[in-house]
Structure formats: C-alpha cells, structure tokens
Task: structure prediction
Amino acid sequence: MTFLGMPAGGGNLTGAPFPEAAREALGNSQLRRNLAKATGTIRAKRANVVGELPDWEALRAAGAAIKDDVLANLDEHLVRFEEALTSRGTHVHWARDADEANRIVADLVRATGAREVIKVKSMATVEIGLNEALAEIGVHAVETDLAELIVQLGDDRSSHILVPAIHRNRTEIRDVFRRAMPGVDPALTDDPRALAEAARRHLRQKFMTVDVAISGANFGVAETGSLVVVESEGNGRMCLTLPRTLISVVGIEKLVPRWQDLEVFLQLLPRSSTGERMNPYTSVWTGPTEGQTSHVVLVDNGRTATLADPRGRAALRCIRCSACLNSCPVYERTGGHAYGSTYPGPIGAVLSPQLTGVERNPTLPFASSLCGVCYDVCPVAIDIPSMLVHLRDRVVAAKRTTPESTAMRALAWAMSDARRWRRLVRLGKFGRVASRHVPLPGWSAARDLPTPPQQTFRDWWESR
Result:
C-alpha cells in the first residue's frame, strides 16, 4: 500500500467565482423554468416515498453511524478492501490526486491499444477530468448514461449530481441529438420514447464493439471486495460485463464495512435521489467476470485533507443522492454550473472547498441562505449549514485584512463591554442616519438597508 499523504484536490473542482456565475444563470429564464419543474417533481416524489417509512429517522441515523465508522477507521477498511479485491483477481492502484489517477487510467487504456472506451456514470471520473486526459492521448470516452450522453453530445457540463442534463428540456435535447448524434433520424421528435430509442440505438453499437469500460461505484464493501453501481437504465450492467477490460475509479470514502450495511443504503439512496422505493438496476461485482481483466483505482484527491478537519469531515458521508440540491432555493434559481465544480448545490458548497482548500474555492461557502432544508432532507444527516458557517470562518481567516474585517473587529471590541457599547449606541444616532447615505460596496449591492429608528430601545425603556 502506498502512503497517500494529504494532497489537495484537483481536476474539475474549481471555476468562476459563484457570484459572477450565478448572476449569469439568473438572467436565463428558460434555465430557471427547467430547474423549477424538474426539482419540484423530484421533491414531491421523494416526500411521498420517505413518508411511507415509519423508521425513516432510524434509517437515517444508521446510515450516518455506518459512514462515521468508515471515516474513523478508514485506513483499516481500505487495507481490508484492497486485500479482498486482490484475492479475487482485481488489480488495485492508488492515486494521490487527479493527475495521478488520470495517468494510471491512461496507461491502463494505452496498454490495451484501444482508441475508444465506454463509461458508466462516475462522478469521480468527472471530478478528476478523465475524459479530457484520455483525449490528450487520442482515446475517445463515450458516456453511456443517458443524461451524461446528452451533456457530452451538447459539448456541455453537468449541472446536477443525479441528473446532469437537468437544465435541458426535451426540445433542447432533441436539437442536441439532431446536431451531434451520428446516424440519427433528421425527423426525430421530442417525444421521450423517441429520444430514448435514438440513444439506445446509438449506444448499442458501442456496447457491442468497444472492449474497454470505465466505471465508478456507489459503494465498495470492505469485507468482500465487492463494488456496487445503482442506476436506472441498465447501461451500467452492459458496461460492467461485456468489455474485456474493466477499470473502476472510486473515491476512498465510498466504502461500507460489511455486506449487511448495504441494506441501509439501498433504502436511503433511491428514496432520496429519484423518489423511488428501489433502484431499477443494482449491479454488484466481486472480481472480474470470466475472460475479463479488472482494475480498481482508489482516488484520494483531497479526501484525507477533508478527513483531517473534525468539523468538516462529515461531508465525506455523502452518498451522492442529490436530495439537498433538489430542495435548495439557491440551487433552484442558479443551477449547477454556477458552482463551478463537479459537485454543485449545498453539498458541493462544503465538499469542493474542503477537497481543494478554501483558498481555491472562497466563494462557495457563501452560496447558501443557511435555511437548513439541506440538513433536513439529507439521508445521512450531514449538518451542511453548520459546516458552511465553519468554512466561512476559515475563508475569512485566510483573507488579508479588509475594510469589512477591520470594521467587524472594531464592532467586536465595542460590543465586548456593556458600558462601552451603551455609549456607542447613544452616539450612534448620527451614524445610523448617515449610513443611509454612505455607499457600502459589497453590502448595499445585495441588501436593503433598513430605515434607522428615531429612538434606541434602551432610550425608549429608560424614558418610560
């Protein structure tokens, strides 16, 4: 086993500052309509199926406890997982960061002589920018998940953890297929069945001819060395079984200790993500199939650095269900591109800055109203609002002295003494009135300053 150290995360985890990107998204009324319709539908379905379970809160607590155990003993679980994988014929590789993971996968693909690979949905490969790295060595990666395929053909970026093309409506998808899908019927309509059939015909030829597949995994079982993929279309099963070489790229936090633990997560995940009682397809593989070569690349990319923060490590409990995105009022209006990271929404606002370090993602912890709905719907009870406040504190601490920080320090000094504060408040009448006429860049641009009262509460109380 190679020592992983505590590297910062790289790849597709940073982008334009959130306020700039969000301002552009807010000007797109079609985007807002698409998002409101999609997230509203998923929210309602989730609420119905979660309400069916009388022990939902107990399941939620169990999920959080299992993931906390994984994080507390991650080194032991990883060693156990590696031993189980190798005993069943799988080759295990360790990657400290995105560059190293891409280099390992590129070498494995190059050794097969393949010029094309098929992929089953994997956020880890999007996180590390694998498609771009393969393109540099002349290998084309074909996405087989329908939403990922739409994003790829549209030369676009994912905007949602579960539904990467959530920002597109049916007419836009039809136009993408007509423009970029080889051999598609020019008279293709925007009927969902027609669109699905067009994608199915396109992908079937890839499944039957491409000999290298790259997958992710929703879970890895430490005691058996099993990997689990849950999905809705069956494309994952085709990817995992047909190609002669299978390369799985997995974040090191995806483990569960025991096979029995899947019982909890296979109830939590589908209800929280798609509002279904169970996933249409759950694929599990323990070692390669007959005649197949199997590799697993375990990726750190900032995860051990996140683990080192006791107030932020719970973000690694995330099972990528997207319930927090579908409930967040900020995400519903800005969409996922505004977050500039593979991981958008509330979980992205805490996970991305921790993976990269807050210095490289200083605006994301402020991309929230702190309403708390993300915590309420999280199936593994990640307290995202408290983490956001913690990360905001780290961002401020990492900054140089600014007029705002100087003003806040002065205010803290004044408020730390009762008599000092009383004198300041009585002297503050002029200041409160003057503040209505003094520009406050960064504050007044996004906030309405209230009209100052004519009398302080203390003065009113003493005059009674």
User: Anything to note?
Assistant: The beta strands are 91-95, 116-119, 140-143, 212-215, 219-221, 226-231, 245-251, 255-256, 281-285, 293-299.
